[in-house]
Amino acid sequence: MSENILIAVAWPYANAEIHVGNLTGSHLPGDIAARYHRLKGDKVLMITGTDSHGTPVTMSADKLGKPVEEVYKFYHEGFIDLFKQIGITYDLYTTTHSENHFKVSQSIFLALQKNGFLFTRVEPQWFSPGLNRFLPDRYIEGTCYICGTEGARSDQCDACGNVLDPTKLVNPRSKVEGDTSSPELRDTEHYFIDLSKLEPDVKKYLEERSDRLRDTVLGESLRKIEAEGLKPRAITRDLDWGIPVPVSDAGWETKKLYVWFEAVIGYLSAPIEWAQVSGQKDAWRDWWTNPAAKQFHFIGKDNIFFHTSLWPAELMGVGSAFMEIFAGEEIPLILPYDVPANQFMNLEGKKISGSRNWAVWGRDVLTRFDPDAIRYYLTVNMPENKDSDWDWSEFVARNNNELVATWGNLANRVLAFCYKHWEGYVPDVDVSTLREADLALLAVIDNGFNTVGAELEAVRLRSALGEAMKLATAVNQYLDVNAPWSAVKTDREGAGKTVYTALKAIDSLKVLFAPFLPFTCERLHGFFNYETPLFGEQYTETVQDSLGEHTVLRYRNVGQVGNLPYWLPSDLKPGQKLNQPGPLFKKLEESVAVEERARLGK
Prior knowledge:
about 600 residues; alpha/beta; Rossmann fold; Methionyl-trna Synthetase, domain 2; Isoleucyl-tRNA Synthetase, Domain 1; 3 domains; 17 strands
């Protein structure tokens, strides 16, 4: 039965190019899940966008001496270009700097206020006498008062993962003014969300998801609540760039909604924008007010607490008030079904660092390697339960020994052999006479839709790809035993049955591999001469609103006609015409690893 699946992916800050760690952390796993559910016939909506208001964005603008809007749009366009090249199929990739996101975020604020979960409080915040302004938390760094690590941000320590009280930071200094700066604490008034009132409900929500959430996600979330509790947290800041606080009282016109509070609201605002630009104003409700819908939030481990505790708390706090304010109806919003957060990917044994150019940048690496080769390595090396490491020698080895040797050569040699010896057609065999070994192989491959599908349903993507590769190995072993290459000379009928069986298995494997390797599987789909493609197409649109215009990336599902499922075993017909086949992947020279390592850190 078809399900409504929302694939929500972490919003990247518009302050730096996206590297492979970002891709395997959230964007790629989200795309694999979306492609699988589309093939399965589910009603999928995959969304995210550029986080345009975070202080990393304003810091980047300050460093470059350019307007913030110019900087955010530069990176935003680059992100869209990357996702098109590597095939991240967002139904809508947008931005937080849009009229729609402003309206939805302000409505969430007002709903929380209406339900009594907001209050104002005067608190000390870091102020720069030299700049004569309050400094956002990321503008201040110092020593973490919990683990002692130098260079901790005042709001969060990346080393120990704890959310920090900015006022407790040891030896604070301004990142924009340098070591000689002397920031001081001054009082300023802000709105707070009273998370303590929502703590029991958040804890209950997590416990109810215990059979779904990964141990790393559930453990960290519950541990933080048990150790620290959910305390009131500021949701406004003294900023020039961002979403205005929707109150008319004097003094609030110089403040904005805090980015941690409003960016996650994008998981709601983006579906609403998608519905608007699609001409289906209320269609977003299928994923947000439908209790049977399933929401998957793909993020990195540094954002776990925000997505498993703070964001659900916001949703619980608004109750039915958001829909009352936004749409004039009292309907509650649903909570995330799963938060399959990944750990970090390192590079050659060291932490990825953009400032030191110790990174494999997405758009750069695509100028030298095919997208499916990158997608394959990022998936088999995906940091699902622990940190992983991008190693260039391993990249070459896995490409050559697995992607090329096990899967690519299987598809190419069988299709090429058939195209040559059966004159461009599938052998016209009587399927009722297939042998026991033929039927046994096809039964194993057909069951792969259950085994691989079960792993994909559970968002165990590495395991799912591994299961598909095992099935490709089984087909290679079948061919080794039956050897049609030599049998065609002495037993053409038997060789035809072997080739037909192998082709049917490859046709099924093409679907099993498709969520991971969409470009080559689509090409292979074409070799089989199917008229309807596996997947749709990506395209861009320009959206105009009161804030100006912004580009969005969209996806048109022209594949499954009428949303019919493709996640089914092959129905390849004997005698079907084929198209001229060709190699799917490229073998890499060992020297590639040396050449790529030489690029690092420069």
